[in-house]
Structures are given as structure tokens and as C-alpha cells.
Amino acid sequence: MPRADIFVTTKVWYTDLAPSALQRSAEASLKRLGLDQVDLLLIHWPNPDIPLEGSIAALCDAKRHGLARHVGVSNFPVALLDRAVSLATEPLVANQCEYHPHLDQTKLLAACRRHGLAFLSYAPIGKGAVLEDAAVRDVAARHGRTPAQVVLRWHVQQDGVAAIPKSANPQRIAENLDVFGFTLSEEDMRAVSGLAQPDGRMVAPGWSPSWDR
């Protein structure tokens, strides 16, 4: 495939956010990928022990030096996202965070839209848990689609949201891509959104930031 047809994203681990370490990490990723440039370079997790000012400056330098076409962050709650945007000298284009119907991300979605960032949903089908919900299965039956297709359509039908499902199964990958030939009604969208739970977060390692409530 032509390089222009592939969008490549890589991330810098939270222990490598000091300016010199961030640059080394980005360069090492490019070497492993066999590329001169990635399309998107993200800070994987914030790290309270490393000043954000230096990390964001190094991230922007990586873009200016041609290591990445675009830069952004991942797992940044609202307050940290606001700070990152205010510090950045290059546009931050995305915040990649956990998002699925069991996890309400209303506040963070609003912040991303306010700053003009894309919201990239990881774990978009909630590690498969949401596919068993009766509401999702009912919508899927009405549309003649799989529950996973319904949930992914729920993501991309929201303003500024993109979903990044993971699969090694060729048939499932094809199904995951086939979500643009139907539309969920407002009632469908509300039914899926109504599945949010107070304890819906599934990814919370020990170095997690203070999440938005």
C-alpha cells in the first residue's frame, strides 16, 4: 500500500516524558517502524513527576523537527488537557482516551470540542462487555448489524469522535470498518448512551491521573 494510504500513530511512554527522553523515544519508534515520520505522535499517559511544560515543549519540537505530522496526548483529563493546550506551541490535534457506552465522557468530550481536538476512543466496545447489553442487541437486530457495529457507529456518529477497535481476526476487522452504511436514530443513540455506569472505567493503572467524575 502507498504510505499516504496508511495513518501511523505511535506514543511515548509515561516514563520517557523528560524532553531528551521524549525525543529519543520518538526516534526509536521511527527506527523500529522503518519510517522517517509518523502521522501522529502522542504522550501516552501524563506523569506528575515530570513537568508538563518540558514534555509539551519536546512534543512540539518533535513536530517541528519533522518526526511527526501531528501531535497530541492520551489519557489527559480536562484540567490536564487545558494545561497542555495552553502550553503547546504547535496544535494538539487529539486526545486518545478510554470511551465506550459504559463510561460517560461528557466532560472530556466537551473539552476536546472546545479546543478543536479529536477524541480517539480506545477500548471502544468496552473489551466486549457492552456487546452483551440488551439495548445494544436490540438496536443491532433492528438494523441487521452486529452489536460491535452498532457500538462503533455510536462512536463515529458523535461529533469529533473516532474509534480505534483492536482485532486480529480478518472478518471482525472487515466488520469493524463496515459502519458507514447505516445511521442510528436519536432514540438508538440515547439507548446506547444510557448504558453508562458510575464504575464503567476498565483501564486504570496505578499511574493514572485523577479522572473526571
Please, could you describe this protein's structure?
This protein has 213 residues and is of the alpha/beta class. Helices cover 39% and strands 15% of the residues. The protein has a domain at 3-127 and 152-169: NADP-dependent oxidoreductase domain (TIM Barrel). It has 8 helices and 6 strands. It has a 6-stranded parallel β-sheet with strand order 1-2-3-4-5-6. The protein is globular and about 55 Å long. The mean pLDDT is 97.
Entry summary:
This protein is of the alpha/beta class and 213 residues long. The protein has helices at 19-33, 52-64, 78-87, 106-115, 134-143, 147-156, 170-177, 186-193, and strands at 9-12, 38-43, 68-74, 92-98, 118-122, 161-163. A six-stranded parallel sheet has the order 1-2-3-4-5-6.
